[in-house]
């Protein structure tokens, strides 16, 4: 069973700074099936990135995704106040779907 | 406007069952897969299963096998998730989500809170 491990657990940054979030899989996964979500308190998740690097509809270009194999990264180039939230990676493989445990991005 | 509208909150006793609905609008129902994802209070996201409306094929998370059933009603573009033998650990917000066959969830319902308490 593939396990997704996100790091760090909590990231404290200031608006305007660059955020780098990591998602590591316990075994190689297809980059076609790696996605990132943002979730704010009391709201459902919002799809940011699919296929490891494709931005979903309406997602600002300050969000970018990259990676392959077992290591994937979400970068927010310049943090806006509305970007402080929890971020999850998600993977599909062998008919099953899995989420990472999440990274909380908080204001420093 | 593409949206998923879920049924309202539920309070159930341990051992009971709950059935949550999710009505899709604004797009062709059979062009997508639908997933159920739950989130316990203060916890992360847990994938529960997927249903393909076109053929009704379903796959469930191993942890929930035997307790969960996902169905669909083609006439109303609605998917359902029934969870049986409820336990306190099943207290969570239950989300339905749409998948454009990219295996990513691009539209989400607002969530249905299910509370299991004696």
What distinguishing features does this structure have?
heterodimer; A: 108 residues; mainly beta; 7-stranded mixed β-sheet; B: 118 residues; globular
Protein chain pair with the most extensive contact, residues per chain: A-B, 24 and 20 residues
Oligomer: heterodimer
Radius of gyration of chain A: 13 Å
- Please provide the count of β strands of chain B: 11
| General form of chain B | globular
Strand content of chain B: over 45%
Write down the Rg of chain B.
13 Å
Which band does the percent of strand residues of chain A land in?
over 45%
Q: Please bin the fraction of helical residues of chain B.
A: under 10%
Give me the strand/helix succession of chain B.
EEEEEEEEEEE
The number of helical runs of chain A is 0
Q: Which stretches of chain B are low in confidence, meaning pLDDT under 50 for 5 or more residues running?
A: none
**Average pLDDT, all residues of chain A:** 96
Report the helical percentage of chain A: under 10%
Detail the poorly predicted runs of chain A: none
H and E order of chain A: EEEEEEEEEE
Largest sheet of chain B: 7 strands, mixed
Largest sheet of chain A: 7 strands, mixed
Q: How many strands appear in the DSSP assignment of chain A?
A: 10
Measured distance between first and last alpha carbons of chain B: 40 Å
Mean pLDDT across residues of chain B = 96
Explained architecture:
The complex is a heterodimer of chains A (108) and B (118). Chain A has 108 residues and is mostly beta strands. Helices cover 0% and strands 58% of the residues of chain A. Chain A contains no helices and ten strands. Chain A has strands at 4-7, 10-13, 19-29, 34-39, 46-50, 54-55, 63-76, 86-93, 96-99, 103-107. In chain A, strands 2, 4, 5, 6, 8, 9 and 10 form a seven-stranded mixed beta sheet that branches. In chain A, strand 4 (34-39) and strand 5 (46-50) form a beta hairpin. The N and C termini of chain A lie far apart (36 Å). The model of chain A has no long low-confidence stretch (mean pLDDT 96). Chain B has no helices and eleven strands. In chain B, strands 2, 4, 5, 6, 9, 10 and 11 form a seven-stranded mixed beta sheet that branches. In chain B, strand 9 and strand 10 form a beta hairpin. By secondary structure, chain B is an all-beta fold. Chain B has strands spanning 3-6, 10-12, 18-25, 33-39, 46-51, 58-60, 68-73, 78-83, 92-99, 105-108, 112-116. Chain B is 0% helix and 51% strand. Chains A and B meet through strand 4, strand 5, strand 8 and strand 9 of A and strand 5 and strand 10 of B.
